[in-house]
């Protein structure tokens, strides 16, 4: 009983810190243009009318919800649309034809209040077109719930590997490059723009949600590492991530850095190229493609292609993407490129630059 009380007090203290942080941010931006202030004032007025508390970040208004409201929106958690490492995800109807996705963190699946509050803290700090947005959260009656932006077209994993996805048609070569560029932009934002920086630690196709065939958003921030301290840390941490995607250097040393996300992105590129899963028994996709992807002959590289593409690819683009994947998968993490460099190379690749413009 004493341990439970202690956990409640700790959770409450962390939540108060989060709310105070947001209040300070609200005060800091209150001098913005009058139009912005009026828009926020109108938003606050709308929230008060329906009796819900809310607070503003520099990007949007985040609402806090009572458990009963979430139950009504999800019809008592009736429609499950996803499964995470520590959670289930349910469809929520928000009214006016709008939908959301409720992530329900489950203790029996390894979730805990600290992880939940860490994820809320991160989501309150970030905003990017290629990141799934936080709409609100609930910490009520033992439940830990995140209300997130709803992306209707399933995950990249489903589209590449699910038998049901065949009815939606194969993602074209240009679709795959565009999706890769969106996720590269998302990771570049987390590493270089977010303050403090964020290391995702779980970049994989099931955490990439498709807006449409050409555009995607990165989701699930439950394993993120926040703060400048992680960049120069010399103390090993518990290994987090998904087999097949986890940085080999991170596995060997326990030291995580933005280059760990770069490695995972390299695996993701191979997944888009080959249409194969990240793990085949005990063999990773990086190992399985090792000989073929390091060959200089484009015809040999073509042998890795997803058969569903029927060879309908641009050879020069393939050469660039394979080269980028090879660099992202280097054992020496310091030698890997940044996500900013990778995003630039993929963007240039979409313009079909000549071979002389290959990254080195």
TrEMBL record:
It catalyses: L-seryl-[protein] + ATP = O-phospho-L-seryl-[protein] + ADP + H(+); L-threonyl-[protein] + ATP = O-phospho-L-threonyl-[protein] + ADP + H(+). Its EC number is 2.7.11.1. The chain crosses the membrane at residues 7-28. GO terms for biological process: signal transduction. Residues 75-353 form the Protein kinase domain. Pfam families: Pkinase. It is found in: Cell membrane. It is a single-pass membrane protein. Its main location: membrane. GO terms for cellular component: plasma membrane. This is non-specific serine/threonine protein kinase. The lineage of its organism: Eukaryota, Viridiplantae, Streptophyta, Embryophyta, Tracheophyta.
């Amino acid at each position: 009983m004493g341990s439970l009380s202690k956990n409640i007090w700790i959770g409450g203290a962390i939540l108060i810190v989060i709310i105070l942080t947001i209040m300070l941010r609200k005060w800091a931006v209150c001098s913005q243009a009058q139009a912005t202030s009026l828009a926020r004032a109108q938003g606050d007025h709308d929230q008060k009318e329906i009796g819900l508390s809310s607070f503003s970040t520099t990007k949007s208004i985040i609402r806090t919800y009572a458990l009963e409201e979430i139950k009504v929106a999800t019809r008592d958690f009736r429609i499950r649309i996803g499964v995470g490492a520590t959670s289930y995800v349910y469809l929520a109807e928000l009214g006016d034809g709008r939908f959301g996705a409720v992530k329900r963190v489950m203790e029996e699946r390894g979730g805990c209040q600290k992880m939940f509050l860490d994820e809320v803290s991160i989501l309150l700090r970030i905003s990017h077109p290629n990141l799934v947005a936080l709409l609100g959260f609930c910490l009520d009656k033992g439940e830990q719930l995140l209300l997130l932006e709803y992306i209707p077209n399933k995950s990249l994993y489903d589209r590449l590997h699910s038998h049901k996805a065949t009815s939606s048609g194969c993602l074209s070569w240009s679709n795959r490059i565009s999706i890769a560029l969106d996720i590269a932009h998302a990771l570049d934002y987390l590493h270089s723009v977010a303050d403090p920086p964020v290391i995702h630690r779980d970049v994989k196709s099931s955490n990439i949600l498709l807006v449409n065939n050409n555009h995607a958003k990165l989701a699930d921030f439950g394993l993120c590492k926040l703060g400048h301290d992680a960049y120069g840390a010399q103390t090993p941490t518990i290994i987090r991530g998904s087999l097949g995607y986890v940085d080999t250097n991170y596995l060997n040393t326990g030291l995580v850095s933005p280059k760990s996300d770069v490695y995972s992105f390299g695996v993701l590129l191979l997944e888009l190229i080959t249409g194969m899963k990240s793990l085949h028994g005990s063999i990773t996709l990086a190992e399985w493609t090792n000989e073929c992807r390091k060959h200089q002959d484009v015809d040999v590289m073509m042998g890795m292609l997803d058969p569903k593409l029927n060879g309908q690819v641009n050879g020069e683009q393939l050469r660039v993407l394979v080269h980028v994947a090879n660099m992202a998968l280097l054992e020496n993490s310091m030698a890997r490129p940044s996500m900013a460099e990778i995003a630039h190379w993929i963007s240039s690749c979409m313009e079909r630059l000549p071979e002389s413009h290959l990254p080195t």
